[in-house]
Specification:
Oligomer: single chain
Low-confidence stretches: none
Number of strands: 6
Number of domains: 2
Strand order of the largest sheet: 3-2-1-6-5-4
Helix content: 40-55%
Shape: globular
Number of helices: 5
Protein backbone atom coordinates (compact mmCIF):
# COMPACT_ATOMS: atom_id res chain seq x y z
CA UNK A 1 0.00 0.00 0.00
CA UNK A 2 1.37 3.39 -0.97
CA UNK A 3 1.99 6.06 1.64
CA UNK A 4 -0.71 8.67 1.05
CA UNK A 5 0.78 11.37 3.25
CA UNK A 6 2.16 14.47 1.53
CA UNK A 7 5.76 14.00 0.49
CA UNK A 8 7.12 16.44 3.09
CA UNK A 9 5.41 14.51 5.90
CA UNK A 10 6.69 11.05 5.00
CA UNK A 11 9.56 9.64 7.04
CA UNK A 12 12.96 9.99 5.43
CA UNK A 13 14.59 6.88 4.13
CA UNK A 14 18.25 6.29 4.84
CA UNK A 15 20.43 7.07 1.90
CA UNK A 16 19.23 9.06 -1.05
CA UNK A 17 19.96 12.75 -1.62
CA UNK A 18 20.29 13.66 2.05
CA UNK A 19 22.93 11.01 2.65
CA UNK A 20 24.82 12.01 -0.50
CA UNK A 21 24.89 15.64 0.63
CA UNK A 22 26.13 14.62 4.10
CA UNK A 23 28.85 12.47 2.55
CA UNK A 24 29.92 15.32 0.23
CA UNK A 25 30.22 17.70 3.20
CA UNK A 26 32.31 15.17 5.14
CA UNK A 27 34.58 14.56 2.15
CA UNK A 28 35.04 18.32 1.68
CA UNK A 29 35.95 18.65 5.38
CA UNK A 30 38.42 15.77 5.16
CA UNK A 31 40.06 17.32 2.11
CA UNK A 32 40.35 20.68 3.92
CA UNK A 33 41.78 18.93 7.00
CA UNK A 34 44.39 17.17 4.86
CA UNK A 35 45.37 20.42 3.14
CA UNK A 36 45.74 22.24 6.46
CA UNK A 37 47.76 19.37 7.90
CA UNK A 38 50.17 19.41 4.95
CA UNK A 39 50.58 23.17 5.14
CA UNK A 40 51.00 23.37 8.93
CA UNK A 41 53.23 20.35 9.58
CA UNK A 42 56.50 22.12 8.59
CA UNK A 43 55.57 25.01 10.88
CA UNK A 44 54.90 22.57 13.74
CA UNK A 45 58.26 20.88 13.20
CA UNK A 46 60.02 24.26 13.28
CA UNK A 47 58.30 25.21 16.54
CA UNK A 48 58.73 21.82 18.23
CA UNK A 49 61.45 21.96 20.85
CA UNK A 50 61.60 25.75 20.94
CA UNK A 51 58.47 26.27 23.06
CA UNK A 52 56.22 23.97 25.11
CA UNK A 53 53.44 21.88 23.54
CA UNK A 54 50.55 24.08 24.70
CA UNK A 55 52.11 27.14 23.05
CA UNK A 56 52.70 25.19 19.83
CA UNK A 57 49.07 24.02 19.81
CA UNK A 58 47.81 27.58 20.48
CA UNK A 59 49.93 29.06 17.67
CA UNK A 60 48.95 26.35 15.21
CA UNK A 61 45.26 26.69 16.16
CA UNK A 62 45.45 30.44 15.41
CA UNK A 63 47.24 29.84 12.10
CA UNK A 64 44.83 27.04 11.10
CA UNK A 65 41.81 29.20 11.90
CA UNK A 66 43.19 32.06 9.80
CA UNK A 67 43.90 29.71 6.88
CA UNK A 68 40.48 28.02 7.10
CA UNK A 69 38.68 31.38 7.22
CA UNK A 70 40.66 32.67 4.24
CA UNK A 71 39.61 29.61 2.25
CA UNK A 72 35.96 30.07 3.26
CA UNK A 73 35.68 26.60 4.71
CA UNK A 74 32.08 26.06 5.84
CA UNK A 75 32.65 24.70 9.33
CA UNK A 76 35.93 26.26 10.37
CA UNK A 77 36.01 24.82 13.90
CA UNK A 78 35.51 21.24 12.66
CA UNK A 79 38.26 21.62 10.07
CA UNK A 80 40.68 23.29 12.50
CA UNK A 81 40.12 20.69 15.24
CA UNK A 82 40.42 17.90 12.67
CA UNK A 83 43.74 19.29 11.42
CA UNK A 84 45.04 19.61 15.00
CA UNK A 85 43.97 16.01 15.70
CA UNK A 86 45.90 14.88 12.62
CA UNK A 87 49.03 16.83 13.53
CA UNK A 88 49.19 16.25 17.29
CA UNK A 89 47.05 13.17 17.86
CA UNK A 90 45.48 10.15 16.25
CA UNK A 91 43.39 11.88 13.59
CA UNK A 92 39.74 10.85 13.43
CA UNK A 93 40.23 8.54 16.44
CA UNK A 94 40.73 11.51 18.78
CA UNK A 95 37.04 12.43 19.36
CA UNK A 96 35.92 8.92 20.38
CA UNK A 97 39.06 8.46 22.49
CA UNK A 98 38.33 11.72 24.34
CA UNK A 99 34.77 10.59 25.09
CA UNK A 100 34.83 8.70 28.41
CA UNK A 101 31.50 6.98 27.58
CA UNK A 102 33.01 5.18 24.56
CA UNK A 103 34.11 1.66 25.51
CA UNK A 104 34.49 -0.08 22.14
CA UNK A 105 36.07 1.28 18.95
CA UNK A 106 36.60 -0.75 15.79
CA UNK A 107 38.73 0.23 12.81
CA UNK A 108 38.02 -1.68 9.62
CA UNK A 109 40.18 -0.23 6.86
CA UNK A 110 39.27 3.44 6.56
CA UNK A 111 36.00 3.06 8.52
CA UNK A 112 35.66 3.71 12.26
CA UNK A 113 32.87 2.22 14.37
CA UNK A 114 31.96 3.22 17.91
CA UNK A 115 29.77 0.63 19.67
CA UNK A 116 29.07 -0.88 16.21
CA UNK A 117 27.79 2.46 14.83
CA UNK A 118 29.85 3.98 11.97
CA UNK A 119 31.35 7.42 12.53
CA UNK A 120 30.80 10.05 9.87
CA UNK A 121 34.46 10.95 9.76
CA UNK A 122 36.78 8.05 9.11
CA UNK A 123 40.28 7.78 7.73
CA UNK A 124 41.07 9.09 4.25
CA UNK A 125 42.12 5.62 3.10
CA UNK A 126 43.52 2.33 4.39
CA UNK A 127 47.10 3.69 4.39
CA UNK A 128 46.04 6.58 6.66
CA UNK A 129 44.43 4.09 9.04
CA UNK A 130 47.60 1.97 9.04
CA UNK A 131 49.80 4.98 9.91
CA UNK A 132 47.60 5.86 12.89
CA UNK A 133 47.49 2.24 14.11
CA UNK A 134 51.28 2.03 13.79
CA UNK A 135 51.53 5.20 15.91
CA UNK A 136 49.29 3.64 18.59
CA UNK A 137 51.32 0.41 18.68
CA UNK A 138 54.66 2.26 18.65
CA UNK A 139 53.67 3.79 22.01
CA UNK A 140 54.08 0.32 23.56
CA UNK A 141 57.00 -0.78 21.39
CA UNK A 142 55.08 -3.13 19.10
CA UNK A 143 54.95 -3.33 15.29
CA UNK A 144 52.03 -4.79 13.36
CA UNK A 145 54.29 -5.55 10.39
CA UNK A 146 56.30 -8.00 12.49
CA UNK A 147 53.19 -9.88 13.66
CA UNK A 148 51.48 -11.28 10.56
CA UNK A 149 48.87 -13.16 12.59
CA UNK A 150 48.01 -10.02 14.54
CA UNK A 151 48.69 -8.93 18.07
CA UNK A 152 47.01 -7.98 21.31
CA UNK A 153 48.49 -5.33 23.60
CA UNK A 154 47.46 -3.52 26.73
CA UNK A 155 47.97 0.23 26.60
CA UNK A 156 49.12 2.44 29.48
CA UNK A 157 45.51 3.53 30.18
CA UNK A 158 44.41 -0.12 30.50
CA UNK A 159 42.78 -0.35 27.06
CA UNK A 160 43.18 -3.57 25.12
CA UNK A 161 44.12 -3.20 21.46
CA UNK A 162 43.74 -6.17 19.10
CA UNK A 163 45.12 -5.54 15.62
CA UNK A 164 45.63 -7.64 12.52
CA UNK A 165 46.18 -7.13 8.82
CA UNK A 166 43.98 -8.50 6.08
CA UNK A 167 45.88 -7.69 2.94
CA UNK A 168 46.42 -3.94 2.99
CA UNK A 169 43.44 -3.40 5.31
CA UNK A 170 43.98 -3.07 9.03
CA UNK A 171 41.39 -4.41 11.49
CA UNK A 172 41.63 -3.07 15.04
CA UNK A 173 39.44 -3.43 18.13
CA UNK A 174 40.05 -1.07 21.02
CA UNK A 175 38.31 -2.10 24.24
CA UNK A 176 38.47 0.36 27.12
CA UNK A 177 38.08 -0.60 30.79
Amino acid sequence: MADRRPRNQRPRRRGGKGRLVERAVIERQQRAIGELQEELTPEVEALRGTIDREQVVARIRERATTLALSRATADVSTVVEGALDEIFGLGPLEPPLRDAAVRAIRIDGPEIYVHDEPLDRGFRDAAHARRVVDRILAAVGRDLGRSPSGLEVTMVDGSTVRARLEGERVIVDILRP
